[in-house]
Amino acid sequence: MLCGKMEPVQRAGVGKMRVYCKCGEKGRIVSREDLSPEFAKLYCQCSSVKCGHTWVANLTFSHTLSPSAQAVDRLLFDRLRSLSRAQQRDLFDQLDGVS
């Protein structure tokens, strides 16, 4: 691999990313440039003084496996707010009849 590899690491319940240099030694993330909420450039450096390799790795969001419950709540709340008062009352009346 030209620019090294990245692996997820779990420590004390906190997810972290570990980077490796192409020489096989551990690397470290020196700085990070967030270009959007879903994409960042990671500026990395090899921990081996003999190697001294520096590189940029891209970190990006891929896809959702399980949607956030907060996102569903927000979607529902926004949808309810878009309804007229009469439509809201009708909906809540229907829900009262169900229970």
Explain briefly what this protein structure is:
By secondary structure, the protein is of the alpha+beta class. Helix content is 28%, strand content 40%.
Helices and strands in order, then pairings?
Layout: E1 5-11, E2 14-20, E3 26-36, E4 39-46, E5 54-60, H1 69-82, H2 85-98
Antiparallel strand pairs: 1-2, 2-3, 3-4, 4-5
Average pLDDT level: 84
Give the termini separation: 59 Å
Structural class by secondary-structure content: alpha+beta
Strand content: 35-45%
Numbering strands along the chain, what is their spatial order in the largest sheet? 1-2-3-4-5
**Element order: H for helix, E for strand:** EEEEEHH
What's the tally of helices? 2
Helix content: 25-40%
Q: Give the domain tally.
A: 2
Radius of gyration: 23 Å
Shape: rod-shaped
Count of extended strands: 5
Largest sheet: 5 strands, antiparallel
Q: Low-confidence runs (pLDDT<50, min 5 residues)?
A: none
Summary keywords:
99 residues; 2 helices; 2 domains
Account of the 3D structure:
- The protein is α+β, with helices and mostly antiparallel strands.
- It folds into two domains: 56 residues, no CATH class; 30 residues.
- The protein has two helices and five strands.
- The chain has a five-stranded antiparallel beta sheet with strand order 1-2-3-4-5, with no helix packed on it.
- The longest helix is centred in the last third of the chain and has 14 residues.
- It is rod-shaped.
